[in-house]
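Hi Y.,

Following your request, here is the sequence exactly as I used it, all 138 residues.
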Amino acid sequence: MKASELLKQKGVKPTVHRVEIMEYLMNTKTHPTADEIYEHFKKEERLSVLSRATVYNTLRVLAQAGLVKVIITPDAIRYDFAQEGHHHFYCHKCQKVYDVMLDVELPQISKVKGHEIQHVQLTLVGICENCLKESHGK
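Below is the corresponding structure, written out as tokens. Let me know if you'd prefer a different format.
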């Protein structure tokens, strides 16, 4: 589905900047920070006037609409297109974030001491396969 259609479906006005940022997140697997998204678009001539504030505001709107996930890692706040069924692994050595599928089911949590749980975000932290290979190869 196109970014503009997803935005409309969620009741978000599909402005040029929102569509562009949404398409970028739909097509990247790097889990970028807001500043990385801003730097990406500063390099593109047609969107070089995009401000840092617009990027942050757009990401907030997209997250509130449930179109992107906010991933909190030890080094930054990152963003991911909100696809169901995966969690994240953060490597503290190379600082990359990977999508991970878990073979174990997380318990179905509906309430914690009277609070209603609407979303569970799991970010595993450790050393990724590539960094482990590099350290064993030395």
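Strands lie at 68-72, 77-81, 87-91, 97-100, 111-112, 115-116, 123-126.

Thanks again,
Q.
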